[in-house]
Specification:
By secondary structure, the protein is an alpha/beta fold. It contains 14 helices and 11 strands.
């Protein structure tokens, strides 16, 4: 709508100038015109065409400027704005004596020309100084905050806000990550995610109802434990149908990080340049790595494929095949890792009882 208004204003302004420009022609030329009104219409149409072209250029320039401003960090935007205001203020103070100098009428154009040039020069000077000394200006705003000084110096980058999706909340591991302190920044739960949890909790299907209620209970515990960090954000997008698309758009608008355990959502967000923290990837990354020679305390739960083999499982679900372990079925023993195998179904570890290795 704004693009249309910009172009329309330029068309109307140029058409008006073209219509009235006939009056600027010499009287002898006007007298030669057989139909002065038709001439006005022709010049108005040509003016409208030129106005459309200029308006289109202004609209494209405005959109590029808007995109740059959106990508600009808030501290840079703030310091540049202050530098621009200070530059214009100094320009007006320094140029005021020039306007008091009496000049002949023939040289009257010098005053407005000096005012325009001085304002432009000092405005750019103010922005340039803000880019150079903006960090010092941020210190003046909040000199008592060590964090703000480190951010101003570029030593510390502020933690981005984390946007939680429905599956991540229901999964519950985000609560443990918060408790351990590995997740920094503000935790945002959008209104449409909360509505989806409520719909699941009210569903007729038992599994969906259990999942929805679990998610709401986890959110309540997190809000009680971290009332200052967890925020229910009212953002919603009526023109977007799916919750996943709304989450990606919301994270884009606030420059936040999307936290999820949904593989497909992670890929879609990555394609749209949205930072993603996948809880499943984190769990995979922190799984303990056992090398040959490492010892494990393991409970043998069942028999293996071979007659002498016993099978147990680590806390993360990794299967451990123990040679000569069938005799310890139902009991616990210490085993020594002999090898590991990565398969399409997951990771397998092969081991032997510590007693047999020592022997």
């Amino acid at each position: 709508m704004l693009d249309f208004v910009i172009i329309l204003l330029f068309i109307l302004a140029a058409a008006g100038l073209g219509f009235d420009s006939v009056e600027l022609l010499p009287q002898s030329v006007q007298d030669q015109a057989s139909n002065l009104e038709a001439l006005r219409l022709v010049t108005a149409v040509f003016g409208a065409i030129i106005g459309f072209a200029v308006g289109l250029m202004v609209q494209v320039t405005y959109r590029r400027f808007q995109a740059q401003v959106r990508k600009m960090p808030i501290e840079v935007l703030l310091t540049r704005a202050v530098g621009l205001v200070l530059g214009l203020l100094i320009a007006n103070l320094m140029l005021a004596p020039i306007f008091l100098i009496p000049l002949p009428l023939d040289f009257g154009f010098i005053k407005p020309l000096a005012g325009i040039l001085g304002s432009v020069m000092f405005a750019f000077l103010g922005i340039s100084l803000a880019d150079t000394h903006g960090r010092t200006f941020l210190r003046l705003i909040n000199p008592n905050s060590i964090e703000s000084i480190l951010v101003a110096e570029g030593t510390l980058k502020p933690a981005s806000s984390k946007v939680l999706d429905t599956s991540c909340i229901i999964d519950g591991r985000i609560e443990e990550l918060l408790n351990t302190g590995f997740v920094e920044g503000q935790i945002l739960v959008s209104q449409f995610v909360l509505q989806e949890l409520q719909q699941l909790a009210d569903a007729a299907n038992d599994q969906k109802r259990i999942r929805g209620r679990r998610g709401l209970e986890i959110l309540n515990r997190m809000q009680q434990a971290y009332p200052d960090r967890l925020v229910i954000h009212p953002a919603d997008y009526e023109d977007v149908n799916t919750v996943d698309a709304k989450l990606v758009r919301f994270a884009q608008e606030i420059n936040g990080t999307l936290v999820t355990n949904d593989y497909n959502l992670s890929k879609v967000a990555n394609l749209q340049k949205v930072p993603v923290l996948n809880v499943n990837d984190l769990a995979q990354a922190v799984r303990p790595i056992y090398l040959p020679g490492d010892s494990i305390e393991l409970k043998i739960l069942k028999e293996g494929k071979e007659p002498s083999q016993g099978v147990g499982y680590l806390d993360d679900g990794t299967m451990v095949v123990v040679e000569e372990g069938v005799s310890h079925l139902g009991g616990e023993l210490r085993v020594i890792v002999t090898s590991a195998l990565q398969t399409s179904a997951g990771r397998m570890i092969f081991a032997r009882p510590q007693a047999s290795v020592a022997a």
